[in-house]
Structures are given as C-alpha cells and as structure tokens.
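Lab notebook, bench 4. Still working through the backlog of constructs that have no structural model yet. Next entry is a single chain of 494 residues. Request: give me the structure tokens for it.
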Amino acid sequence: MSPFNSFIAGLPRLPPRESRHRSSNPFTLLASLTAMQWAFFFSGWFAWVCDAVDFFAVSLSTARLATQFAKPVGTVTLSITLTLLFRPLGAFIFGILSDRYGRKWPLIGNLLLIAAFSLGTGFVQTFSAFLALRSMFGITMGGIWGLAVSMSLENMPVEARGLFSGFLQLGYPVGYLIIAAVNLNPYIQKQQHWRVLFYTGAGMSLFAAVIRLLLPESAYFKERQQCRAELEADGAITKSATMTTLRELGKTLRVHWARCVWSVIFMSAFNFYSHGSQDLYPTYVQIDKGLSPHLATVTTIIGNCGAIAGCTVGGFVSQFLGRRLTIIVMAVFCCAMLPLWLLPTSFAGLAAGAFFVQAGVQGAYGVVPVYLSEISPVAFRATWPGVAYQLGNMVASASAQIEATAGAKIKDPTTGKPAYGKVAAILIAVSAVVLIACCLVGAEDHGAHFENGRAAFENDAGLDIVEDPERQLSKVVSNGDQKDQVKVYHKEHV
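Model written out:
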C-alpha cells in the first residue's frame, strides 16, 4: 500500500456499529456498574480533583503572591513552569511503581506526599523556598493522572469507558471550581490569607489517601499477580518480578518508540491548548478587561462549569464518533468560540465566552484518558499514558510565561493595557491546529479490552498493544473460562 493510501486508510472514522449500539444509553451504563467499580472510580476521580485544587491555587493567587514576594507576575508564573517541568519525573516514578507493585499503595504514597508539600507551601516565607516546594510538588503531582486513569478504567465495563473517561477528566475543572469557590471568601481574598488555599489542598489530598486506603487492590492487578504466582509455583518463572518489569520496559521502548514520540507531540499540543486557556485567565480578565478579583473568580467558575459539561459530553460522544473524531470536533468548536472569549467587555459576554471555550477545550480533553489507555502498551498503562501526559505538560510548561511576557509587550492599541487575551487566543488556535493534525495521523483502538493484557512483571508483556475487542486471548483458545485462557496464554509465552 502506498503512503498516501495508508494515510487515507488511517484517517479517523466511526467505530463499528456494534460498539456504538452497546453504548447508546448512558443511564444503562451508569446502572451497569457495581458498588466496587463506583468506589474505584471515585477514588481515582477524587485524587485527580486534589491535583487540580493545589495546582490552580497558584493561578488564582498569582497577583497576591507577586505582592507577597515583591516579584512581577511573570516571575511568579515561574513556579507554574517548574511544577510542570518536574511532573514527568513523578509520572515515571509512580507509574513504574504502580505497574510493578499495584494500584493501591503507590497512589496512597503519592497523595500523602502531595498533602505534605501542599501544607509546606502554605508556610513558606521566601520566594526561593516557594519555588523549591513547587518543584518538589511537581514530582508528586506528576504521578496522579496515570495512576488514577489506570485504576479507574481497567475496572470499568468496556462500553462505559468513554463516558467515564469524560467523568474522570472533569475532575480537573471540578478541582478548579472548588478552589475558586474557596477563593471567593472575602477573608481568603485578603493579601495575607492566600495560604489558606494550600491548606485546603493539603486536607483534601490527605482525605483522598484515606479513601484509597479503605479500598482493595485493583481487580485486574490481583488477577495478574495470582497468575504469576501460579506460574512461579509451577517453576515456569525464575526471574524476579522487578527485573522482568525493567526488561519489559526496554522492550516497550524499542518496539513502540514511534507511538511514544507521537504521544508526546500529541500531549504537548493538548497541554498548550489547555493551559493557554487557563493559567493566566484570571489575570487576563482583570488587567485586559478591568474585572474585579471577585468577578474574575466568578467568570473562572462559569468557565469551569463549561469544562465540566464539555468533559461529560466529549467522553460519551466518543463512543459514537470515535476518539479522534470527537477531539477534532471539539477543537473546531473551541476555535469557533474564541471571538466570544476575546471580544466582549462586559461580565456577561466574558462569562459566556469562558463557558463555551472551556467546553471545547475540556470536551476534547475528556477523551484523552480512554484514548491513551486504549493505544497504550498494555503492561505499562499507568506509566506510558502518565509519562506522555506529563512530558506534554513539560513541553507546554512555559505557556504561562509566554502569555505573561508576550502579553506585557504587546499592548492593546486602544487602552494601552497588556494584551494577555490576544496572546492566549493565538496560542489556543495554533495548538488546536497541531492537535487536529496529530489526530489525522494517529492510531485508534476503539473499545480495546486492555484489561485482558499481561502485567509489566510478565514475560513479553512489553510487546502487547490490544488493537480490537476480540484480539486478546480469543486467538489462543476457544473454550474454557477467562481465567483458564489467561493461564494458557501466559504459559505459552514464558
């Protein structure tokens, strides 16, 4: 097949009719979950909420932090950049721990460290100490997304994963909404009381750790551990699980390197797309548009209501349109709403623009958890999506400084004020174009049964990518229950 024909054959298209039919009724999907599946999902979702609460505490208090430390806004946003820069390290560390040791204890440890660093941020007295803590915090924040996604979605019915992918991702705007609502308190809005925002984040992260402590290990991971234990008892495995995990990681990088590079480009565009619309938005509407801090916070809250709606719709619609087509549609919608986001001068107009732009941004983002999970090397489903996500964050880490620096230099010709909004709109539009291009050339494994794949500590697990619902195990044996099929499959691949 010629390169052109290969490109045409790989373009986004509707998923199979059977897959769309199984996902047609959201209420049926919601009712299909067991209590334990709901509990696993809530634990991962709430951990992601906590991640957002502390991250956006900096965005909402940028002006007060600048006054506190006697630094310009552009310098204070260096803390956001450092947090994003260190997140890939955390994604790798905690992702490997999760893929090797399970979904429970790595997430608990991660949340406890987040609580500690968040609490410490509330006590800092110097700008250098603030930057150091935010850097360390970036490492711990980096682990949350991959661990939350792998635990939540692997315990979901396949036909419900699109909808719950959107629900999971909306944890981020919900976290923004929570901390913005806390910030509305007149007491907290006083210059010296910005620290309360970080105390709030610490308390929530500690609570999230307690929730995960009360739940068992992921059902998928317990099954894989039992399978390995049986093979070890039979003498079929001699190498340690840790050494096997590291060896399989090397295989993954050698075999799937092209998909890894693509995923980093894809998530870099996504993070410029998202952070460009969020990081300096409160500053934009205050300085460019003259809104009060209170109205700026209210506008942020309205925008995040749009993000919540977008995540829900985007995740569910992806079951019908496919993952890539949904991202493309949402990106086009977002760009169409940019004039409404940029041109109004009234509170009502700006609030409407914030709502619809965030609906487009997060409507596309709501597809990301399930999309990356489906195209991920199965054994490293906590590591691979998390590292791709956070490397994209690292590449986009300068977005806040780009907006702050360029906005301060490019003045509005009529008012002479910094043009933060114009710079942000350009950044969003360019990122959306790159994102659409990535979707046109990327892979898609809609409805993949990745819960049937091998774990990282099993032989040749690093080679697996589940490409369709029937590929795993059905080729191995035609009779017997799933557990027996798994055992036969793995014994043949030792």
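Notes after review: The radius of gyration is 23 Å. The chain has one domain: 25-492. Flag for follow-up if needed.
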